[in-house]
Write a structure and sequence with these properties.
- The longest helix has 18 residues.
- By secondary structure, the chain is an alpha+beta fold.
- The protein is globular, with a radius of gyration of 16 Å.
- A hairpin with a 5-residue loop joins strand 4 and strand 5.
- Helix 4 crosses helix 8 and helix 5 crosses helix 6.
Amino acid sequence: MTDATAATDDGHGDGVTVDYYISLNSPWTYLGAQRFLDLANTYGAKIKTKPARFADVFSATGGLPLGKRSAQRQAYRMMELRRWRRRLDTQIVLEPEHFPSDETAGVRLVIAAEVAGLDSARLSLEIGRELWERDHAIAEAAALRTACARAEIDYDALQGGAPEDGDLDDIWEQNTEEAISAGVFGAPSYVFPDGEIMWGQDRLGFVEEKLKALAA
Protein backbone atom coordinates (compact mmCIF):
# COMPACT_ATOMS: atom_id res chain seq x y z
CA MET A 1 0.00 0.00 0.00
CA THR A 2 1.32 3.42 -0.89
CA ASP A 3 1.46 5.98 1.89
CA ALA A 4 1.03 9.15 -0.11
CA THR A 5 1.73 11.51 2.77
CA ALA A 6 4.95 13.46 2.71
CA ALA A 7 5.51 12.43 6.33
CA THR A 8 3.72 9.90 8.49
CA ASP A 9 4.40 11.47 11.89
CA ASP A 10 2.23 14.56 11.43
CA GLY A 11 -1.02 13.08 12.67
CA HIS A 12 -2.13 11.88 9.25
CA GLY A 13 -0.51 8.46 9.24
CA ASP A 14 -3.82 6.71 9.86
CA GLY A 15 -5.65 8.57 7.09
CA VAL A 16 -8.36 7.08 4.92
CA THR A 17 -7.32 4.49 2.34
CA VAL A 18 -8.62 4.97 -1.20
CA ASP A 19 -8.72 2.04 -3.60
CA TYR A 20 -7.30 3.35 -6.87
CA TYR A 21 -8.46 1.28 -9.85
CA ILE A 22 -6.39 2.06 -12.94
CA SER A 23 -5.40 1.06 -16.44
CA LEU A 24 -1.93 1.97 -17.64
CA ASN A 25 -3.40 2.26 -21.14
CA SER A 26 -5.90 4.89 -20.01
CA PRO A 27 -5.04 8.51 -20.82
CA TRP A 28 -7.59 9.56 -18.22
CA THR A 29 -5.75 7.60 -15.55
CA TYR A 30 -2.57 9.39 -16.53
CA LEU A 31 -4.15 12.84 -16.74
CA GLY A 32 -5.45 12.55 -13.19
CA ALA A 33 -2.55 10.72 -11.58
CA GLN A 34 -0.38 13.58 -10.37
CA ARG A 35 -3.35 15.56 -9.09
CA PHE A 36 -4.66 12.53 -7.20
CA LEU A 37 -1.27 11.91 -5.61
CA ASP A 38 -1.10 15.57 -4.61
CA LEU A 39 -4.55 15.40 -3.01
CA ALA A 40 -3.68 12.25 -1.09
CA ASN A 41 -0.54 13.94 0.17
CA THR A 42 -2.40 17.11 1.17
CA TYR A 43 -5.11 15.32 3.13
CA GLY A 44 -3.06 12.49 4.62
CA ALA A 45 -4.77 9.73 2.63
CA LYS A 46 -3.29 6.41 1.66
CA ILE A 47 -3.59 4.91 -1.81
CA LYS A 48 -4.02 1.24 -2.55
CA THR A 49 -3.10 0.95 -6.22
CA LYS A 50 -5.15 -1.69 -8.01
CA PRO A 51 -4.49 -2.17 -11.73
CA ALA A 52 -7.43 -4.09 -13.19
CA ARG A 53 -8.20 -5.81 -16.48
CA PHE A 54 -10.63 -3.29 -17.86
CA ALA A 55 -11.56 -5.41 -20.87
CA ASP A 56 -13.10 -7.77 -18.33
CA VAL A 57 -14.59 -4.90 -16.34
CA PHE A 58 -16.22 -3.54 -19.50
CA SER A 59 -17.55 -6.97 -20.40
CA ALA A 60 -19.15 -7.34 -16.98
CA THR A 61 -20.57 -3.82 -16.78
CA GLY A 62 -21.78 -3.05 -20.30
CA GLY A 63 -18.82 -1.04 -21.50
CA LEU A 64 -16.96 -1.32 -24.79
CA PRO A 65 -13.25 -1.15 -25.57
CA LEU A 66 -12.25 1.90 -27.55
CA GLY A 67 -12.04 0.17 -30.93
CA LYS A 68 -15.62 -1.09 -30.64
CA ARG A 69 -17.19 2.23 -29.70
CA SER A 70 -19.18 4.24 -32.20
CA ALA A 71 -17.45 6.78 -34.41
CA GLN A 72 -19.26 9.53 -32.54
CA ARG A 73 -17.96 8.37 -29.17
CA GLN A 74 -14.43 7.99 -30.49
CA ALA A 75 -14.52 11.49 -31.97
CA TYR A 76 -15.82 12.94 -28.71
CA ARG A 77 -13.06 11.21 -26.77
CA MET A 78 -10.49 12.98 -28.95
CA MET A 79 -12.21 16.34 -28.39
CA GLU A 80 -12.08 15.75 -24.64
CA LEU A 81 -8.41 14.81 -24.74
CA ARG A 82 -7.63 18.04 -26.59
CA ARG A 83 -9.62 20.06 -24.07
CA TRP A 84 -7.95 18.45 -21.06
CA ARG A 85 -4.50 18.73 -22.63
CA ARG A 86 -5.12 22.45 -22.94
CA ARG A 87 -6.73 22.81 -19.48
CA LEU A 88 -3.92 20.96 -17.71
CA ASP A 89 -1.18 22.36 -19.93
CA THR A 90 0.28 18.89 -20.38
CA GLN A 91 2.38 17.36 -23.14
CA ILE A 92 0.14 14.32 -23.56
CA VAL A 93 0.34 12.72 -27.01
CA LEU A 94 -3.18 12.40 -28.39
CA GLU A 95 -2.52 9.37 -30.60
CA PRO A 96 0.64 7.63 -29.36
CA GLU A 97 2.25 5.18 -31.74
CA HIS A 98 2.37 2.51 -29.05
CA PHE A 99 -1.28 2.68 -27.98
CA PRO A 100 -2.72 0.37 -26.95
CA SER A 101 0.44 -1.02 -25.43
CA ASP A 102 0.84 -4.44 -23.86
CA GLU A 103 0.61 -3.39 -20.21
CA THR A 104 1.36 -6.79 -18.68
CA ALA A 105 4.95 -6.08 -17.67
CA GLY A 106 4.05 -2.64 -16.36
CA VAL A 107 1.09 -3.91 -14.36
CA ARG A 108 3.20 -6.66 -12.83
CA LEU A 109 5.77 -4.07 -11.82
CA VAL A 110 3.14 -1.82 -10.22
CA ILE A 111 1.63 -4.75 -8.34
CA ALA A 112 5.10 -5.85 -7.19
CA ALA A 113 5.71 -2.33 -5.90
CA GLU A 114 2.37 -2.37 -4.08
CA VAL A 115 3.20 -5.72 -2.48
CA ALA A 116 6.60 -4.41 -1.44
CA GLY A 117 5.13 -1.29 0.16
CA LEU A 118 6.79 1.03 -2.36
CA ASP A 119 5.20 4.03 -4.04
CA SER A 120 3.15 2.07 -6.55
CA ALA A 121 0.88 5.01 -7.37
CA ARG A 122 3.87 7.16 -8.31
CA LEU A 123 5.29 4.29 -10.36
CA SER A 124 2.00 3.92 -12.24
CA LEU A 125 2.08 7.65 -13.01
CA GLU A 126 5.61 7.40 -14.38
CA ILE A 127 4.78 4.36 -16.51
CA GLY A 128 1.85 6.35 -17.84
CA ARG A 129 4.23 9.18 -18.67
CA GLU A 130 6.31 6.78 -20.75
CA LEU A 131 3.28 5.96 -22.89
CA TRP A 132 1.32 9.22 -22.90
CA GLU A 133 4.08 11.81 -23.05
CA ARG A 134 7.19 10.01 -24.26
CA ASP A 135 5.31 7.68 -26.65
CA HIS A 136 7.27 4.62 -25.58
CA ALA A 137 5.98 1.06 -25.51
CA ILE A 138 5.45 0.21 -21.88
CA ALA A 139 6.02 -3.46 -22.65
CA GLU A 140 9.73 -2.68 -23.02
CA ALA A 141 12.10 -3.01 -20.08
CA ALA A 142 13.91 0.23 -20.98
CA ALA A 143 10.72 2.26 -20.55
CA LEU A 144 9.90 0.56 -17.26
CA ARG A 145 13.42 1.06 -15.97
CA THR A 146 13.16 4.78 -16.77
CA ALA A 147 9.79 4.98 -15.03
CA CYS A 148 11.23 3.31 -11.93
CA ALA A 149 14.12 5.75 -11.86
CA ARG A 150 11.75 8.74 -11.95
CA ALA A 151 9.67 7.13 -9.19
CA GLU A 152 12.87 6.63 -7.16
CA ILE A 153 12.48 2.85 -7.19
CA ASP A 154 15.34 0.44 -7.88
CA TYR A 155 14.16 -1.47 -10.94
CA ASP A 156 16.55 -4.38 -10.53
CA ALA A 157 15.83 -4.79 -6.83
CA LEU A 158 12.08 -4.65 -7.45
CA GLN A 159 12.27 -7.21 -10.22
CA GLY A 160 14.57 -9.45 -8.24
CA GLY A 161 12.38 -9.45 -5.15
CA ALA A 162 9.03 -9.62 -6.90
CA PRO A 163 6.63 -12.54 -6.55
CA GLU A 164 6.37 -14.97 -9.45
CA ASP A 165 4.53 -13.71 -12.53
CA GLY A 166 1.68 -16.11 -11.88
CA ASP A 167 1.20 -14.72 -8.40
CA LEU A 168 1.24 -11.15 -9.72
CA ASP A 169 -1.31 -12.11 -12.36
CA ASP A 170 -3.49 -13.62 -9.65
CA ILE A 171 -3.49 -10.25 -7.85
CA TRP A 172 -4.33 -8.54 -11.16
CA GLU A 173 -7.30 -10.87 -11.53
CA GLN A 174 -8.30 -10.34 -7.90
CA ASN A 175 -8.20 -6.57 -8.44
CA THR A 176 -10.47 -7.01 -11.45
CA GLU A 177 -12.99 -9.08 -9.50
CA GLU A 178 -12.91 -6.56 -6.65
CA ALA A 179 -13.44 -3.69 -9.08
CA ILE A 180 -16.54 -5.33 -10.52
CA SER A 181 -17.88 -6.22 -7.07
CA ALA A 182 -17.32 -2.64 -5.91
CA GLY A 183 -19.30 -1.25 -8.84
CA VAL A 184 -16.36 0.09 -10.82
CA PHE A 185 -16.87 0.32 -14.57
CA GLY A 186 -14.14 2.67 -15.82
CA ALA A 187 -10.64 3.95 -15.14
CA PRO A 188 -9.57 5.74 -13.13
CA SER A 189 -11.92 5.04 -10.26
CA TYR A 190 -11.38 6.17 -6.70
CA VAL A 191 -13.27 4.01 -4.19
CA PHE A 192 -13.65 5.08 -0.58
CA PRO A 193 -14.12 2.74 2.40
CA ASP A 194 -17.83 3.59 2.59
CA GLY A 195 -18.25 2.31 -0.97
CA GLU A 196 -18.59 5.69 -2.68
CA ILE A 197 -17.04 5.66 -6.16
CA MET A 198 -15.75 8.62 -8.07
CA TRP A 199 -15.03 7.78 -11.67
CA GLY A 200 -12.76 9.79 -13.90
CA GLN A 201 -10.04 12.37 -13.50
CA ASP A 202 -12.69 15.06 -14.01
CA ARG A 203 -14.21 14.02 -10.65
CA LEU A 204 -11.12 14.89 -8.64
CA GLY A 205 -12.91 17.95 -7.27
CA PHE A 206 -15.34 15.59 -5.55
CA VAL A 207 -12.42 13.43 -4.40
CA GLU A 208 -10.90 16.50 -2.78
CA GLU A 209 -14.17 17.44 -1.07
CA LYS A 210 -14.47 14.00 0.47
CA LEU A 211 -10.83 13.77 1.51
CA LYS A 212 -11.07 17.20 3.12
CA ALA A 213 -14.22 16.24 5.02
CA LEU A 214 -12.70 12.96 6.22
CA ALA A 215 -9.52 14.71 7.35
CA ALA A 216 -11.43 17.38 9.29
